[in-house]
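During the reporting period the student researcher (J.K.) took over the structure-prediction task from the postdoctoral fellow and processed the backlog of single-chain submissions. One of the processed entries is reproduced below for the supervisory committee.
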Amino acid sequence: MMGEPTEFAERVLDLVERIPPGRVMAYGDIAEYLGEGGPRQVGRVMAVWGGGVPWWRVIRADGSLPMSHVEHAYRHYEAEGTPLRGQRVDMRRARWDGV
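J.K. obtained the following structure tokens:
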């Protein structure tokens, strides 16, 4: 762990906590919503401090599941009723716009 989260990290984590069950946001969606950073910066926040928030609701823009946590994430998606298309999240149906 890298100490206390930065202000940017706190904003990312707060937004991730608000993503409703069954919905997702891409890393870039979060950066765009916050008006700062980019997908890589959001990904770094999630890698370092994201364990305490619903991390499985933050995914790549193509809907692919988190590589190192596929099975664990998939269980969450099934439990929450997240729309899937094969082995990917159906971004058209599952993407949350933050409102």
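The committee noted the following: Residues 7-18 form the longest helix (12 residues).
J.K. will present the remaining backlog at the next meeting.
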